[in-house]
């Protein structure tokens, strides 16, 4: 009797552990999708801004919208975009992200004031100011990518 009960409990907890295990795997996938989406949104915003800066058809309104999207993305909680160990497979996230977390998180935080400058510049409508502010944002992206994003495989 006692051993049967034990077996039942063992089976049940193995099942629970497996469920948790799948949930973690799915979580990792959805987290990685979510951050890919966030990064791509920012990439698109930078492209839109660049079109205006290079006089290739973008408008000041496009830049304003881009700055708003950048600001929103930069406000996301970096810890939920990069939970511990969320790399592997196609991901180019370097393991150093989690061993140098403070540096990584600081670089993410630096994005916000850079995006704020772009918002200001967009409001002025001045192409040179916008170009300079875009340079600032680009630098914030690049600093982190150089250090924490692995080269394309
Ligand atoms: C604090 C670090 C950090 C900052 C700041 C940052 N990124 Fe990233 N970005 C990463 C990492 C790490 C990856 C790789 C993620 C992966 O492959 O799992 C990445 C990936 C990307 C990708 C590829 C997405 C994909 O999977 O297709 C784009 C595009 C991108 N970033 C754009 C930007 C832009 C534009 C900015 C600035 C506005 C920016 N990033 C700022 C760390 C950062």
What gyration radius follows from the Cα positions, in whole Å? 21 Å
Distance between the termini: 57 Å
Q: How many runs of DSSP E, i.e. beta strands?
A: 0
* Average pLDDT number: 90
- In CATH, the homologous superfamily goes by the name Cytochrome c/b562
Bound chemical compounds: heme C
Percent in strands: under 5%
Kindly report the CATH topology.
Four Helix Bundle (Hemerythrin (Met), subunit A)
Shape: elongated
SS summary, helix count: 7
What does the largest sheet look like? none
* Shape-level CATH architecture: Up-down Bundle
CATH level 1 class label: Mainly Alpha
Structural category: mainly alpha
Low-confidence stretches: none
Question: What share of the residues lie within helices?
Answer: over 70%
The total number of structural domains is 1
Q: What pattern of helices and strands is seen along the backbone? A: HHHHHHH
Protein name: Cytochrome c
Signal peptide: 1-25
Keywords: Electron transport, Heme, Iron, Metal-binding, Signal, Transport
Question: Quick gist of this model?
Answer:
This protein is mostly helical and 153 residues long.
Task: Write structural notes for this entry.
The chain has one domain (31-148): Cytochrome c/b562 (Four Helix Bundle (Hemerythrin (Met), subunit A), Up-down Bundle). The chain is 78% helix and 0% strand. It has helices at residues 2-53, 60-74, 78-81, 96-99, 101-109, 111-124, 127-148. It starts with a helix and ends in a 5-residue tail after the last helix. 18% of the residues are buried. The structure holds heme C. The site of heme C (HEC) has 22 residues, from α1, α5 and α7. Keywords: Electron transport, Heme, Iron, Metal-binding, Signal, Transport. This is Cytochrome c. Residues 1-25 form the signal peptide. Pfam families: Cytochrom_C_2.
